Amino acid sequence: MHKGNISSVTEFLLLGFSELGKNPTVLFLIFSLGYGTILVFNITIMSVILTDRTLHSPMYFLLFAFSVSETSTTFVTIPKLLVTLLTGHQSISFTECALQVFWFFGLGANNCFLLVAMAYDRYVAICYPLQYQVLMNNKTCAKLVVASSMTGFLISLSIDALIFRLPFCGPNGIRHFFCDLSPVLRLACTDIYLTSVVIVFFCAIVLLATVILILISYIYILSAILKIQSSMGRQKAFSTCASHLTVVITHFGCASFVYLRPKSVSSLDQDTIISVGYVFLTPLLNPMIYTLRNKEVKFAIKKLLGLPTAQKLARMFVTHVMKYHSFPRKIISDRGFSPFRVVNGRDFGPFGNTALSQYMGGTADVDEWIQIVQTTWPWLQKNLDHAKHKYKEQADKHRSPGWELKMGDQVYLSTKNLRTLRPCRKLSDKYVGPYPITRVINEVTVELALPKALRRVHHVFHISLLKPYTAAPHFHLEPKPEVPTVVGGEVHLEVSKILDSKLKKGKLFYLVRWKGQNDLLSQHYKHNFYSPYQGRKRNRQV
Known about the structure:
The chain is of the alpha+beta class. The protein is 55% helix and 11% strand. It is built from 15 helices and 12 strands. It is flat and about 120 Å long.
């Protein structure tokens, strides 16, 4: 405690569940199970977003930040509650109480601002879908997360300084299971009216202002959705916002009921019960809401846990049916047995694998089966080679001839499989380079010398991703002389530029340049033009 504080209170007592007469052992088991579930769900969400590259988008980046903030909020309150229920030690020091208020309110305010950022993300995605990648890039998302954290903790620091500068001279029992704003403020030994007004003002900024911003975003979203013509498109747009809207209602409903309603002495017990829902249920429901209503997250979780996805199950089912029920069993006339018998050594029957069980039991004639395979294999190989030749012959009709690859040749590299810094692939260059060939691995594969900017890209490429480099030809284009116009038997040329003029014997003469006929103006004409004025400065050149 600060030295300037006249209070004699050095610690507080958390009396939240002791005054309600609850069994601490049962509560400890219930809260421990709930806390473990919260950690498992939120850590799973964070791990899936980190490991799955398909979820590396602005929406899931903000969801990851929100899960981190929600999990951190539980670290502030629940471990101390479990220790209190298990050991019965209800005391908390003055400094620990101040830190608990700071971190709890700061993380709670951070959650509110992150929900506003998530609402803005949905607004941009629905109202400006073509500009989404430009407006909501990684830098913008990082700025939103940092701004949310800084604003939330600055407000929390202001509230913490307002409360704990007050004198506390007893009693020291907090009617709550953690140091919340209202229970701690009631223990001050001075008039708390002005402090309460300021704290309510800060709470209104955090809760009401964020709710208003979210409502404005959803008004624009709703107007944009109603302009969509198809019902399928409107339903898909609504589904992208349903999870976020459910979390907003849950989060702000509990927080507003605790911090914005009028306070009374009897309401402290209600605040304790409601805070249990706010501390436990909100972090527990948020990952469940985003998981149950999001197919991409469910698919990523199954892939992370190694569970068979719907596509994998369908592929396994089709493979099983094709292998055991749909394999060709038509008897081949020239050999007298089916393709199934060629592969498996038996004919598949409708009553199970009886023939296979006979083979496994050792009663089948193995030598006969080996002889069948040995006589059948050359015939199968011949037919496979014939089919391969036919496929190649048909494919070669549509295949363009390749070009010869040599070491040192310059080639362009396709950006088909390269990530660029452009906001979308349509704005990227189709080819980059040219880069020299350092090694010819085979007739369709080469190794290129790539610059340092592409050091993470493997330097071996298929010929289909390359294009030969051809230097642009340099042509020296001479001006094409214009054909003179003949009018009345006289040649008429167009004047391109008047170079000089002179007055001779009362007549005006011009030295001109003809358009397209530069060879007509020779040194002879210039000499004749300037000959009467030998001392004149020759400042005009043709």
